[in-house]
Amino acid sequence: MQAEESLRILVGTEGDSLPLMEINAGETEASEQWDYVLVADRRTQRNPRQACQQRRFLEELRTKGFHYKMMEDREKVFFGVRADSRIFDLYRTLLMEPEGPAARGQPARPAPIPATTRIRIVNFVLNSKTAAGDTLEDLVKNGVFETRFALHKGEDDLKKKWAQWRNMVNKQPIDDIRDYFGEKVALYFAWLGWYTYMLVPAAVAGLVIFLSGFSLFNASQISKEICEADDILLCPRGDHGRKYQRLSDTCTFAKLTHLFDNEGTVLFAIFMALWATVFLEIWKRQRARVVLHWDLYGWDEDQEEMALELINCPDYKLRPHQHSYLRSTAILTLCLLMICLMIGMAHVLVVYRVLAAALFNSALLFQEEQVTTAVVVTGALVHYVAILIMTKVNKRVALKLCDFEKPRTFSERESKFTVKFFTLQFFAHFSSLVYIAFILGRINGHPGKSVRLAGLWRLEECHLSGCMMDLFLQMAIIMGLKQTLSNCMEYLGPWLAHKCRLIRVKLGHASEDPELRDWRRNYLLNPVNTFSLFDEFMEMMIQYGFTTIFVAAFPLAPLLALFSNLVEIRLDAIKMVRLQRRLVPRKAKDIGTWLQVLETIGVLAVIANGMVIAFTSEFIPRVVYKYHYGPCRKGADPAVDCLTGYINHSLSVFHTKDFQDPIRIEGSENVTECRYRDYRNAQDYNLSEQFWVLLAIRLVFLILFEHVALCIKLIAAWFVPDVPQSVKNKVLEDKYRTLREKIRSSRKSTDV
After folding, report:
1. Is 38 helix (H, G, I), strand (E, B) or coil?
2. What confidence score (pLDDT) does residue 748 get?
3. Alpha carbon distances (Å) from 430 to 230, 544, 569, 654
4. d(C-alpha 212, C-alpha 259), whole Å
5. 150 closest CA partner among 84, 83, 89
6. What sign does the CA torsion over 83, 86, 88, 90 have?
7. What is the spatial distance between Cα 631 and Cα 664, in angstroms, rounded to a whole number?
8. In 3D, which of 485, 484, 497 has the Cα closest to residue 579?
9. What is the pLDDT of residue 204?
10. According to the 3-state scheme, what is the secondary structure of 463-490?
11. Which of the pair, 739 or 237, is modelled with greater confidence?
């Protein structure tokens, strides 16, 4: 054997023993297509137990009809794996269907097996249980093998046309992605591209709503009254408020709030409900066209998995569907406990905000009027960190619950895991927003008699300009961080890891053998796992939730999502083609359970936005005042704005003599009354008649809004068919042609 360039190649073929040969790299057969590589540390060759386990695993592969080759460098041992052509012939026979549109014409010789199919079959067999009861995953954990991966081959075309930042606005080559990564990945990018395209009208509408607030920035009657209210003093807010504040000091925030809390908010919320429905319905049509083009319209996933099981083991016994009410009850109970934990995390954030307000005030870190803004911003940052931590916890819990449930197949396991993990993630991301939107500032009592945490700290109040500002800031910070910081880490992490590996190898020995060099190049890429594509889907589902749920409080969410997705598509492409090992291709004809997740988010968005408009925004109080209490209640007067006097009407009166310790409040000597946001009587501070009238109207509006929005969704879903007529007709023609061919074949056999 030559010093470092001689290769030890262990070749296994059916019926042969396992001869150990020494040949040069150039003597390898050109027809060999090594699709999969196992890697082990060279030290395992000196460990008798691990070497025996390797040989036993490879011997079992040989008996199943696989070929393999061993190549060594200074540190690692590489095992190339490929399946015999008879395995693929069996695969075709079992499924009795073509591999693509070109196969319909019954060519004289079989079409070559796509690389995606070869890799998929090899991966399935490798990850199945051996005769000893071990799996490849068990062998990796025990150090017998270090890792395994599918080889990148022929990706240069995708690098040029797709995986470059300069192609950010170009159309994606979905068919090429399918031919290289399989249908599952191709459908993900087809869906992501369609979602990004449909975000354009939503982003434009949200931007128009936001800019319409700018056009009325100085014309709003409410903003004018607030800016001119020099004689109205607001009561001290919380324990950090030690002095009265003029209402006019909140002028700037009042104008900013009007940018997203204006008359167009209701129309935008209804538009987004319609948009979400149209987006999903047209996507279903797009999917049908793509799947028909791939000749997978009638493909059956259960049949595919059974075929792979039979290829791996001809004596495979079918696992029937099973259901255990006891197991389902236990899983439901554990899920509810985890959801309670997520809600508890929201309460922890509440405690943080209360304590942070006291700390910022006592430490004099901020001016008194800046404390609330500082608490909101830092609270959003803490929430973001909590989301990152709980994501890892939720994934582990969801996996354990899936293992306990014992799903029948991998696809069933993936579906159940998707539902559980998304549910936990949804509560982790949105529980804090629910608190801000519907609870913050509503259970605090009133000046002089406030509700306190542990009897010590007063609960946090909404922003001076209303709770919509708190919700807007929380949405903007969390979504902004997820779209910027997360994307940067998602790209920079794999890029830096790959560069470090390359530098480490360049400092060592580099083989001149092209095949070994190619295997090592693939080995040095970042590892992938079962969750690589799943994590991308989950990231988009959470973003879709932010884009639709609470969009009434943050109309710029679709615009941020649009910019983020333009980057996300190329970022994912570069990661998959240039920085990561090749994903194992998977067959699919839709995006699976994620479609039900999207539909669920659409319904939740209608409910959440209706509640935001009814209970969080000032839309209902303004409309009620305009037509029931204001100067226009008996008819419109062109000379008077219908909202004149609204601010005075919406602020309750508190007599300063009723403060428990009025002496501690700065400037209280000449102040007899102050104002606060609520609808209470000035005598006994009980909830006033206006509060109950508003509550009734809010509930009526919520019911009407949700019914109207849901009816619009249902009508849109009915109006736009899931499957285009051209697709239905094409499937019908194929069935008709098949039946005619069977009749002709039957007549020929009868004549003979």
Report:
1. strand
2. 75
3. 38, 12, 25, 35
4. 7
5. 83
6. negative
7. 40
8. 497
9. 94
10. CCCCHHHHHHHHHHHHHHHHHHHHHHHH
11. 739
- Convert the pLDDT of each residue in 560-609 to its tens digit: 999 999 999 999 999 999 999 999 999 998 998 999 999 999 899 889 88
Return d(Cα 15, Cα 172) in angstroms, integer: 46
Amino acid (1-letter code) at residue 461: E
DSSP 655-710: EGGGSSSGGGSBT-TT--EEEEES-B-TTT--B-HHHHHHHHHHHHHHHHHHHHHH
- pLDDT category at 155 given cuts 50, 70, 90 is confident
Place of tokens 């039946």: 739
What would the two tokens of residue 438 be? 């519907």
Span 407-416, pLDDT tens digits: 888 888 888 8
The model's confidence at residue 105, banded by pLDDT at 50, 70 and 90, is: very low
Name the nearest CA neighbour of 528 among 587, 581, 585: 581
Q: Enter the DSSP assignment of 581.
A: P
pLDDT of 196 higher than 90:
yes
CA 24 from chain centre, in angstroms, equals 49
Q: How far apart are CA 419 and CA 595, in angstroms?
A: 11
Residue 524 tokens read as: 């040095």
Coil vs helix vs strand at 497? helix
| CA-based nearest residue to 200, from 559, 584, 588, 646 | 559
Q: Mention every residue, 6+ apart, whose C-beta is less than 8 A from residue 537.
A: 188, 591, 594
Average pLDDT over residues 44-50: 85
Sign of CA dihedral 148, 305, 83, 120: negative
Quick check: 239 pLDDT over 60? no
